[in-house]
Design a protein that fits this description.
By secondary structure, the protein is an alpha/beta fold. The protein folds into two domains: 150 residues, Quinone Oxidoreductase, Chain A, domain 1 (Alpha-Beta Complex); 143 residues, Medium-chain alcohol dehydrogenases, catalytic domain (Quinone Oxidoreductase, Chain A, domain 1, Alpha-Beta Complex). The chain contains eleven helices and 15 strands. Strand 11, helix 7 and strand 12 form a beta-alpha-beta unit. Helix 3 packs across helix 4 and helix 3 packs across helix 10.
């Protein structure tokens, strides 16, 4: 079978499409013929050895997949050959098949396509965990979503809307803002792609966009944006840290003090490992919204396996709008 492998640390152009041995299911594992693999920013970090979890090489990037069970390991009775399943796997997704622990697999809901099932794990589950479990977003509150046209952003826009919030998307281009509005944002604010001379002016722009103060700020971007974004938070607001596509910021701690706000970290990986009941509840909620037509996967680009490096490059350039998926 074929797999797109990282054989040494490097960028997307370092990946190699190679023939490898077919995977064999170990005890409590299934082998999945991969139909689709979602592409996420951690894929870029992982192949560069910059992610917090290191993976032994060679490995295929790709943390979320959907496909069909082709074989079962010993002691597996949750699934049968032919079942449609989605799985969160960390790495290994950009391959034609992969062996996966059954605890990482879930049935794909009726009526959901493989591409939608693949991409509606990592970002959508992160967004719901961040907004509902961590930030406690309430109906009628205002949520500012940074990177509102990206993969995490478009998931957070829809989840916040479904939780009853007024959603303001912030993005680096009019194209991304339009995409966020088409998925439920009621307002939008543009920020520069490069670090501006006057960050306070950007903070004022944010503050005007949210009507004086945001109850919740979702930040998967970081970098210079953190400073102006936290300046627009309301008294008692919650600033939720999801990632650092623009770099890890240094936050002046006088700002949380002056704003009387909370700064909350979100580690979705830890959540999936330590809170299985809450994870199942969140998955069920997302499936209900999808069935009711209240969630869109937000896929804007599909790539073949051989072009998986190009898919990751889209995220490296921060040019991706919505979700990107590799289709086998």
């Amino acid at each position: 079978m074929r797999a797109l492998l990282s054989c040494e640390p490097g960028g997307p152009d370092s990946l190699k499409l190679l023939d490898v041995a077919e995977p064999v299911a170990g005890p409590r594992q299934v082998v999945i013929a991969v139909k689709a693999c979602g592409v996420n920013y951690p894929d870029l970090l992982t192949i560069q050895d910059l992610y917090q979890v290191k993976t032994a090489r060679p490995f295929a990037p790709g943390a979320e997949i959907a496909g069909v069970v082709t074989s079962l390991g010993a002691e597996v009775d949750e699934f049968a050959v032919g079942d449609r399943v989605a799985a969160r796997i960390g790495t290994g997704g950009m391959a034609e098949a992969v062996a996966v622990d059954v605890g990482r697999c879930a049935p794909i809901a009726d009526g959901m396509s493989f591409v939608d099932a693949a991409v509606m794990q990592f970002t959508f589950e992160t967004a719901l965990y961040a907004l509902r479990n961590r930030a406690g977003l309430q109906p009628g509150e205002t949520a500012l979503i940074l990177g509102g046209g990206g993969g995490v952003g478009i998931a957070a826009v829809q989840v916040a809307r479904n939780l009853g919030a007024t959603v303001i998307a912030a993005a680096s281009s009019e194209e991304k803002l339009a995409f966020a509005r088409s998925h439920g944002a009621t307002g939008g604010v543009l920020y520069p792609t490069d670090t501006p001379q006057d960050r306070k002016a950007v903070g004022q722009r944010f503050k005007e966009a949210v009507g004086g103060g945001a109850d919740v700020v979702i930040d998967p971007v970081g970098g210079w944006l953190t400073d102006p974004a936290i300046r627009c938070i309301a008294d008692g607001g919650r600033y939720v840290v999801l990632g650092f596509t623009a770099g890890i910021p240094s936050l002046p701690l006088n700002l949380p003090l002056l704003k009387n706000c909370d700064v909350l970290g979100v580690n979705w990986r830890t959540f999936t490992l330590t809170q299985p009941e809450a994870l199942r509840d969140n998955k069920s909620q997302l499936e209900r919204w999808y069935a009711e037509g209240l969630l869109s996967s937000g896929i804007t680009a599909e790539f073949a396996l051989a072009d998986g490096g190009r898919a990751i490059q889209r995220l490296a350039e921060r040019s991706a709008v919505g979700k990107v998926v590799v289709v086998m």
